Amino acid sequence: MIQPFIAEKMDKIADLCIHHKVKNLDLFGSSTSDSFNPNRSDLDFLVEFHKLPPSQHADAFFGLSEDLANIFAMQIDLVEKQTINNPYLQKAIEQSRVNIYVES
User: Fold this and answer.
1) Which among 42, 40, 43 has a CA at the least distance from the CA of 26?
2) Which of 20, 25, 51, 54 is 20 to 30 Å from 102 by CA-CA measure?
3) Cα separation of 11 and 25, whole Å?
4) Alpha helices, DSSP H only, in 8-104?
5) What angle separates helix 10-19 from helix 54-72, to the nearest 10 degrees?
């Protein structure tokens, strides 16, 4: 499930993903369920970037996080797929994640 206020910004999200060299972007957590409350919830994103040199990777990560926060005017939690080592967290993400961008 994608919240309507997110769905209406899909073109902006795609532009950000292209600009920041994103291969795949998923939404997960409360924002993909009926329990989402925009007054007290944040947006959780799972991201996979193209292979980049470390300095470019850092710029892409922090730039995407800041740009998402700006377009939604909300707290953003951005998690990189390859950094998840906790199997419980990985399972929780898998149960709620919804793809919102994949490089074409």
Assistant:
1) 43
2) 54
3) 13
4) 10-19, 54-72, 87-96
5) 160
User: Which is nearest to 17 in space by CA: 54, 47, 52?
Assistant: 47
Domains identified in the chain and CATH numbers: 4-102 (3.30.460.10)
User: 20-37 pLDDT, tens per residue?
Assistant: 999 999 999 888 988 888
- For 15, counting Cβ atoms within 10 Å of its Cβ (0-12 exposed, 13-18 middle, 19+ buried), the class is middle
pTM comes to: 0.91
Task: Give percent helix, percent strand, percent coil of the chain, each to the nearest 5.
Answer: 50, 25, 30
* 51-89 tens-digit pLDDT: 999 999 999 999 999 999 999 999 999 999 999 999 999
DSSP bridge partners of 26: 46, 99
